[in-house]
Predict the structure of Peptidoglycan D,D-transpeptidase FtsI.
Amino acid sequence: MRYNVRSRVLMVGGAMALCSVALVGRAFHLQVVDNEFYRKQGDERILREIAIPTSRGMITDRNGEPLAVSTPVESVWGNPQELLANPERIPELAEALDVPVDYLTRKISQRGSKEFMYLKRRISPTAAKRILARGIPGVFSQREFRRFYPQGEALAHVLGFTNIDDRGQEGLELAFDDWLRGKPGAKRVIRDSRGRFVEDVELIRAAEAGHDLTLTIDRRIQYLAFRELRSTLLRTGASAGSAVVMDVDTGEILAMVNLPTYNPNAVDPRNADARRNRAVTDVVEPGSTMKPITVAAALSAGVVTPDTPVDVSPGYMSLGRYTIRDFRNYGMQTVTGLITKSSNLGAVKLAEKLEDDYFHEFVSSFGYGQKPGSGFPGESSGVLPPPERWYGSTKATMSYGYGLSATPLQIATAYAALGNGGKRVTPTFVKGERHETREVLSPQVADQVMQMMQTVTEEGGTATQAAILGYHVAGKTGTARKFNDTGGYSRRYVSFFAGVVPVENPRFSMVVVVDDPDASKGYYGGLVSAPVFKNVMDGALRLMDVPPDDIDTWLAAQAEADAKRRKAADAEAGTAPVVPVVQAAVSAPSAVPAVSRGAAP
Ligand code: 59J
């Protein structure tokens, strides 16, 4: 046995030694022994180490759909010395490269002492072949890989992009550069003095392809969010916007869009402003989207229940030098009613019942003032001032969303915790990553807050525009005046909607932030941002096969639509509408198709 192993080691070792001897021998032979022969040809052969290019890993969405792919391209390069030695071919080369002759001549002379210059980078293999086919001395080509982003501007901020050398510059391309980037191999080859390849001598290192990366993004929801946000910005004349969709249980980010955006397939270095992933890097005062958190704090502390009456008349109150106002005098409200109507005074009255440290700690546990930990480069932590730095009105203004700041991603994460029974889940972009969770709220209080937020999208709430047929929607609007440089609140606004669906068995949280809508076109969160939420979530619920939790409303609406259609058909056929059928439709929707078919002829 022992003997056996030893003999095998010897054999393998011996074989390897023989191989190296053979390689060295070959190199020696080519360089020294055969050298005379090559010299006779008038060419000098050079032993060179060259890189073996490798492709960058593919990035796919959660369903394996390609989001970033590397396609092989060719880069045409030249040996300036040799190009200069054949000046009569330069006009032809310029024509083949489609550049002015004098420009090319100048470029080549600048590199005259060198042996390498790029002539045209990253073109299609066919285009490269066409240039090489001219047989101009000193013109060569080498394989490279070019990144292509099929989703273009719809997903630009999340993915980021690579530079001409295929290195990640921004976004997830940067964050996961080491993982995605392959290791180029190396081999020793023999080239002639013109740089032409003669023979492979030795493989130094095999090329390792980069690893693929599967994201949590759903391409379809992403596109939906992009389309809806874009149309809302056009409709409202707003200057910027962000939307984030998260899976409440896993923290997976299903969609993240920002406007303005850019084309990652042709990055313009000048518009850095359009390249920011605002949802992760830009902070806003969260305004009324904070109120459910304040209510959750008061419920958790046991100082109120959802039905506790709160007097918010006459709609304004002074606090030190400030006057805090509600949109209207909402009089006596329950705690639930404060959310339904979005009462600033109500939030202040609840916060007054809470210890400073407790309130700060509570808000902080939802992730405000802390980096979300998604791994995205340049995450902002927002600002949540600690009680030591509060002055007279700070706790009051924080309770309804001013005097602190947060990113859209932080707000989406906080709402996910309300939706998943009170666990803060670390947001993530990468499928299969371990999710950290921490209980920040009892499931009972989380459910109570969800019930309260459901009233916002129902009759009498501030965002009936966010209602989705067949599903109960919990959410909160916000319309916040923007703080301006001169130290006051301006007549410019940020419009919010943050919500969770479906209420019975929550799956998604989504935040929509629209910056600076044209005030003359309507700027309330319910008007500007809630429709984006509605249209995207409506699509996502169906795409992800989420069962409806409000079947009654759905069936009733269907029956109503059927009845209307039947009425129209009857009118066209010249018959009088059959009244009993309409009644049957409302009370027993399942019978409608049979009845309608029977009645038609
Ligand atoms: C508001 C504020 C600014 C900061 C006020 C919006 C304060 C405040 C000092 C006046 C427009 C406006 C710290 S209103 O979000 O109350 O979403 O459908 O910006 O109040 O004290 O012309 N939202 N918005 N307040 N500031 N400071 C309401 C409310 C909200 C609505 C509508 C109308 C404000 C119902 C906001 C919505 O809930």
Q: What stands out?
A: The radius of gyration is 33 Å. The chain has three domains: 49-214, 219-263+276-543, 551-579. The chain has a mean pLDDT of 89.
